[in-house]
Amino acid sequence: MSVLTTSTPSAADDAAELLRFDKSAETIRKHAQWISGGVNSNFRLNISPTPLVFERGEGPYLYDVDGNRLIDYYLGMGPMILGHKPQALVDAVKSQIDKGILFAGQTAIEAEAARLVCEMVPSAERMRFGSSGSEVDQAAIRLARAATGKRKIIKFEGHYHGWFDNVLWSTAPSVASAGPENAPIPVIGSKGQLPESADDLTVLPWNDLEILEAHLRERDVAGVIMEAAMCNQGSIHPAAGYLEGVRAACTKYGAILIFDEVITGFRLAPGGAQEKFGVTPDISTFGKAIANGFPVAAIAGRADLIDMFTTGGVVHGGTYNAQPVAMAATAATLRSLTPAVYDKIGASGTALMEGFREVFARQGVTAQVVGFGQVFHIALGLEAPARNYRDLAQMNKPAYIALTTALLYRGVRALERGAWFLSSEHDAAVIDESIAAMNDAVRALKAAGTL
Description:
- There is one protein chain.
- The chain is an alpha/beta fold.
- It folds into 2 domains: 15-81 and 339-447, Aspartate Aminotransferase, domain 1, CATH 3.90.1150.10; 87-336, Type I PLP-dependent aspartate aminotransferase-like (Major domain) (Aspartate Aminotransferase, domain 2, 3-Layer(aba) Sandwich), CATH 3.40.640.
- It is built from 14 helices and 14 strands.
- It has helices at residues 22-31, 87-99, 108-120, 133-148, 209-216, 242-253, 272-277, 303-306, 308-311, 324-336, 339-362, 389-392, 397-409, 428-447; strands spanning 54-58, 61-64, 69-72, 126-130, 152-156, 201-204, 221-226, 256-261, 283-286, 297-301, 367-371, 375-380, 412-413, 419-421.
- It has a 7-stranded mixed β-sheet, sandwiched between helices. The protein has a 4-stranded mixed β-sheet with strand order 1-2-3-13. Strands 11-12-14 form a 3-stranded antiparallel β-sheet.
- Strand 11 (367-371) and strand 12 form a beta hairpin.
- Helix 3 runs parallel beside helix 10 and helix 13 (397-409) packs across helix 14.
């Protein structure tokens, strides 16, 4: 599999004015002799025009080996809510490194970070730290089964809960292979997965309360795991009354409700999507924005459930759980997430969304720009906002990749799956520059017949 996916700017572009990424492409080829594909995650593979190699980050910008300055809307795929290299976090991390790195014991800083989580998150009566979203989602599923004595887990099309065998199903399936919308067929996510790992998994369409309730009535469901706002694919809002209905149905039929807030947690609000929408799950999982780029995750929830790790015979462990340097980063990040910071990010994101809508409308491009100020999504080719994964699957993905490629040549880096993450460092000047780049990219792609 090639690590270089597309090569040069469109014929409609003025190549002299556009950025080049030749050194990144060559460096990736060199690194591939030691690192499979030249990258350490499949989600960084085959990016157009090439996976990039960076030297440093500062505020809203990344600087690559070609000397390019890029406005960054990847933000580490979500974590960098305070931007790159925020001083308060840098100071906290340096201070902790002077004290030590890893003790295989407890520290005051992990208790401080845990206190902040419990104070900020509505569901967090008790919590534990982990290292990745994938692993804390596994812990949540284990707790649900232990607490209920049942086996079945319900997840939803388009929702991502990590790359392990038992949940990497129907995260981005082709509609042709996924069966009917009201009764999806679980679609495997990777070669090497055991097909029987889905024997106790049910995949349902999201935002359809009636279908979920019908499955819960069978009373054999241990847990329901979902993104409270579908931000891995599409930044889709829950339908009016949907989360409230799910909460009531899980309570009625004895299933544990798990909110995967790895993306939404500490991003949509201090208490995540559950605070924003006013619905409290039994268990929540967090990652990404919790530590602004450090490998930290958390599982939180009802004390009787989380305390099963202590008294209920449920195993949870990890060498790097609550690693002190990462805990210093966590505490510094959470202390920095003030109401003023959320207001600033929300205003910047809203302005960017509105600017992009105006560009698409002015240039006659059918697109939906939807989501939240802190994270939103662009879907080309959709006539109306998506309600679920099946709606989103109708977007024009090749055209969107062409758009993100054109933007990259103009100094704006955005995820090819459609998500745009904002930080506190994306100010008005950055937003204006980004809108101008979008206008120029759309103009060039229209002239080339791509849009």
